[in-house]
Amino acid sequence: MIKFPESFLWGGATAANQLEGAFDRDGKGLSVADVMPGGKDRFKILTSEEFNWELADARIYPNHRGIEHYDHFKEDIALFGEMGFKCYRFSIAWSRIFPQGDELEPNEAGLKFYDQVIDECLKHGIEPVVTISHYEMPLNLAKKYGGWKNRELINFYERYAETVLSRYHNKVKYWMTFNEINSASHVPALSQGLVKSNGAKDYTNVAQAWHNQFVASAKAVQFAHALNPELQVGCMIIYGTTYSMDSNPINEMATIIENQEFNYYCADVQVRGKYPAYTKRFLSSKGVNFSDLEIAEGDLALLETNTVDYIGFSYYMSAVIDVTQETPETVGGNLMGGVRNPFLKQSDWGWQIDPEGLRIAMNNLYNRYNVPLFIVENGLGAHDEVDENGYVEDDYRISYLRDHIEAIGRALEDGVDVMGYTPWGCIDLVSASTGEMSKRYGFIYVDLDDEGNGTLNRSKKKSFDWYKQVIATNGEDLG
């Protein structure tokens, strides 16, 4: 029997731009997410030459409505409480607090909304876990300032982070500075506000944006620890366990490089406090001279002395590297895909299902960094068939989550320090990768389709009661 720590934080995770809706209410400004269109071509549009952060009449924007959590948050959090959540990971929408991003004073209506969300969590005995920036920077900062390649954003983020930390630090212990910061390797639009029309074509801008984010994150850590040394501030990365296709040394070296450049680069800086030895080689391979980056006096010392307390990470799938074949069979994934692994099954969206890969990820991360780990995203996006009562018999989701929880238990036995587990999209919400409702992750079904039709009624899936039992038994009863 696997024993989870008594303090283990079971819960669920969401992001403001994918469920709140109310995109233009109570003083909220537009965010970059608000102009990202819905549909399977979302990333194709975002990475096109012509995309320029403008709304287009011919496109749809499902996140403008989300699942109307802005009006239903009490109902939703009550359902989380019924499941027994120990924690709830959510994000604060930056443009609710600073609508344009560069104001001197915050929007009080936005702060009051999160006062209510946090108080509602605490009412139900749920520990809030807050992501400060989750793919929703104010649109003005991307359009007027050119996104995170501009060093001025450090000051804007610092003002925002200090505002929310000061407001909520007596009620919120756990924080993360940037969601999936390494996602910029593939789609810098999400976390850096960079598309081809404002700098994404030049990887120097991506590298500079990362540096500016590292500095901004370190400033947030510094401020939080000055407020209260007990506050826990983490970084947050995508982790995709990556295997060499075979024992060919060429593939093995390519796998090492892929792991360094995607899985470890951002964490190396934020956890170890300095740029890793492979930085110059990595950036040089992208046509970037590290010495050309704007690194101000004091930046490196700031990074070294204000490292994060833990690593939050998302894990959905693993990847395989094969650079020896010209046309290998490939599969998709969470921003990163790879060569098809013949040993694994795939989700409805082609993501390879690999629970043992989560155990490998946890061992790799913990033994590399020796700081606590927090699995803040994991789950199965699937087509759910709902009956007339709103019930979904989602045994496939239960199977996926059970296998991954068992892998966490094995990692605990390996000696890994794991803080908690918050499956992604604990209530159905708009997909980040496609802007669809039909790619569902939740324990709670929301009656809304890809065209925006539906009652928005919430109903419990079979996985709701299953996860409730998992939490109640602290992982001992996995069904």
TrEMBL record:
GO molecular function: beta-glucosidase activity
UniProt keyword Hydrolase present: yes
Alphabetized PROSITE patterns for the sequence: GLYCOSYL_HYDROL_F1_1, GLYCOSYL_HYDROL_F1_2
SUPFAM superfamilies, alphabetized: (Trans)glycosidases
Keyword hit for Hydrolase: yes
Domain of life according to the entry: Bacteria
GO cellular component: cytosol
Keywords from the named record: Glycosidase, Hydrolase
Catalytic residues of the enzyme: E377 (nucleophile)
GO terms of biological process kind: carbohydrate catabolic process
Pfam families to which the protein is assigned, alphabetical: Glyco_hydro_1 (PF00232)
NCBIfam families in the cross-refs: PRK09593.1 (NF007158)
Protein family: Belongs to the glycosyl hydrolase 1 family.
Protein name: 6-phospho-beta-glucosidase
